[in-house]
Amino acid sequence: GSPPAAAMRSEPLVQAASLLEEATDLLVLHRDFAAAVERCEAGCDSLGPGTGPERCERLSEEVKCSLCVVGIQALAEMNRWREVLSWVLQYYHVPEHLPPKVLELCILLYSKVRDPQVMLEVGSSWLTDQTNKSLPEYGSLLELYLLHVLLPLGRFEGAEELVRGCDVFDSQQQLAFLGTICESRCQWAQQEEMHLAAEEQQDAATESVLGALSQKLLTMLTLLRRALRSMSSHFYLFPYKKMLLATFLLYLVVVRLDPASPTSLPFIYKLVQLFRQAWAAVFSPIHRPPIQD
């Protein structure tokens, strides 16, 4: 005869548990991360939507969560951490349904790779869900989200609102977290000030170098003007303009300015201005000889 209905319902669970064991061995013992991910995917697919008794449902969710945990670790080992969140959500569909352990791993992973922005909306959706607020892990996950997502991103007002609106924390815990947020805000402001000071110092150094180069160019062009004026009575038809332009271009080559570099733009702009001033001084109407280009 046909197998009992209970046995048929437990078959996917047994298969998924077997795949979980294989995936764990591949991850830990054999270090075959790609194969471990394949087993995890097969296990999650075999479970499908839960329609069995409550006990089977609970076991199924535990196995599914464990498969995702192993899969996350395997993806991270292959440096495929960017795929982790989308990979997990294909089995849980919305952030609110993520198991606490999976959410914890995702927060820690994206914090470690310095990309907490990925978890900003996901964590917020999970923490504002009424069903999740009754879970025993809610307080620890809120703290994790606060320390590894909101504060590193400078979301201080959102962090304060989250702490004040949390019923899980008592008044003493709330004060402690608000103190942590205040301290983090001060550190953030200090870092901003240091960053601005460093930028100002760099700008001052750039201006100093630019001034030295400008002075060098003016000295060179002054000497050139004297030489040209001393020769003007003998060589009226000499192409002064081309000579001065060639000297200017040679100077650009000597100082090795890189036109592709953004830092070279103010140098070139000021050198052009100085060139125009020197040109006007050299060939003023009083000393200007007849020039033929």
UniProtKB/TrEMBL annotation:
Example GO molecular function: ATPase binding
Q: Which Pfam families match?
A: Pex26
**What's a BP term from Gene Ontology annotated to this protein?**
protein import into peroxisome matrix
Q: What GO cellular component term, any one, is given? A: peroxisomal membrane
Q: InterPro entries, per this entry? A: Pex26
Give the protein name, as stated in the record. Answer: PEX26 protein
Give the source lineage, highest ranks first. Eukaryota, Metazoa, Chordata, Craniata, Vertebrata
The primary gene name is Pex26
